[in-house]
Task: inverse folding
């Protein structure tokens, strides 16, 4: 667990990962609004588990990944910026995360890494 409590792994992986698949299914069925509301609600609920910047950054990062995959590039960039400010340790991974590949080359995305 790299010094992290087990609940973070459960909440972050065992909860968020299946929710992303469910959101994808909703989108394929033409229910993109339902998918977005579900993921935003999940992120809000998970953020309440721990108000540390590291945890909230992870939660925001996962929401950014969802938004990027759902095609909301501007929303994804905005949330990703929040996530990286809260948890700078995610920066290196975010550059190679395939969930975010649709953002590569966009000015807002590139500005996140300019400094």
Result:
């Amino acid at each position: 667990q790299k010094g992290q409590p087990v609940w973070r792994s459960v909440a972050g992986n065992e909860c968020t990962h299946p929710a992303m698949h469910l959101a994808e299914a909703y989108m394929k069925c033409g229910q993109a609004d339902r998918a977005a509301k579900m993921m935003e609600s999940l992120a809000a609920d998970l953020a309440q588990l721990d108000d540390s910047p590291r945890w909230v950054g992870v939660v925001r990062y996962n929401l950014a990944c969802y938004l990027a995959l759902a095609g909301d590039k501007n929303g994804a960039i905005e949330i990703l910026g929040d996530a990286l400010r809260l948890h700078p340790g995610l920066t290196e991974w975010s550059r190679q995360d395939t969930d975010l590949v649709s953002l590569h080359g966009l000015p807002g995305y590139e500005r996140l890494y300019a400094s």
